[in-house]
Structure formats: C-alpha cells, structure tokens
Write a sequence for this structure.
C-alpha cells in the first residue's frame, strides 16, 4: 500500500531534500518505521523515546489531525496522504 508523505523543509535533510516521499504502513506507527528504513535518523525526530508522536509536530492523514483520530494507531490505506507539520507558536 502506497502512502504519500509530505515532509517539511526542516526534516528534508533526512530525505535527500525531497519534500514528498512514498512509503508503506497500515497505520501511522508503521509508516514511521517505513520512513526510518528509507531515511535513517528521521524517526527520532518524529517520535519520542516511548514511540509516541512528538508534541511539537502535527501529523495529518488526509487533512485530519491524528490527535483527533487514533493517534499513531490511525489506520492508513492505499493512496492516503500524511502531512508532517511543525507546530508554530508565538505571541
């Protein structure tokens, strides 16, 4: 199953400057593993030491925030698009 991953500029140093990748996984957690196989070192930027998505990154599956779905257990299907978006804060 092919899933398109949109990678922010800050993480493209792990993807050979590619903004879009095609990976596999039946859920977001497996997608992280697939990304790590293709781009060594990226998973530690996406997940904390417990394997949970880092708080300062937002992950969207087809424009739906995974925090309001099933988190890293959110299922994926062929053709889905996962966006990685750095959190922005300010005042």
């Amino acid at each position: 199953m092919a899933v398109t991953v949109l990678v922010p500029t800050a993480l493209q140093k792990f993807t050979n400057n590619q903004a879009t990748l095609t990976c596999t996984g039946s859920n977001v957690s497996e997608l992280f593993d697939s990304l790590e196989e293709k781009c060594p070192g990226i998973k530690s930027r996406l997940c904390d030491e417990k394997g949970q998505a880092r708080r300062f990154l937002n992950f969207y599956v087809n424009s739906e925030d995974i925090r309001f779905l099933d988190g890293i257990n959110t299922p994926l299907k062929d053709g889905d698009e996962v966006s990685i978006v750095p959190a922005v804060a300010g005042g």
Notes: The chain has one domain: 2-86. Helices lie at 28-38, 43-46. Residues 2-86 form a domain with the Ubiquitin-like (UB roll) fold (CATH 3.10.20.30). The chain has a mean pLDDT of 95.
